[in-house]
Design a protein that fits this description.
two-stranded antiparallel ribbon; globular; mainly alpha; 4 helices
Length: 114
């Protein structure tokens, strides 16, 4: 079974969920309701992005729609970052690498549109 599903099953009757850490012996306790909420938001956002991508392919306003969606996602990312940045379980290195990729993508888009 997938690890996240196992976490949700194991924490069914509790207020917290134990997420695996970087090593086999590390775990992080998180609010189960918040975890479920974030999972649901991620699923909704993914479905929204897939639908937006499909619509934008043949839509001359597609780039603007996708840019608006990107701004929305970045705003949500910032909000989430502010919530977890000081937690010892936060994977700062992984996040930093993703921020570099985001910057590269932004620079490529800027070069293309300048």
């Amino acid at each position: 079974m997938e690890p996240l599903v196992e976490v949700l099953i194991d924490s069914y009757d509790t207020g917290t969920a134990s997420l695996p850490g970087e090593s086999d012996h590390e775990t992080a306790e998180v609010d189960r309701k918040e975890l479920v909420k974030q999972i649901a938001e991620a699923i909704d956002e993914t479905a929204e992005n897939v639908n937006a991508d499909q619509r934008a392919r043949n839509d001359f306003d597609g780039p603007a729609k996708l840019a608006r969606s990107a701004i929305k996602n970045i705003d949500r990312c910032l909000e989430s970052y502010r919530t977890v940045k000081d937690d010892s379980s936060f994977k700062a290195d992984e996040f930093s690498a993703l921020m570099e990729k985001l910057e590269e993508a932004y620079e490529a888009l800027t070069r293309e549109t300048s």
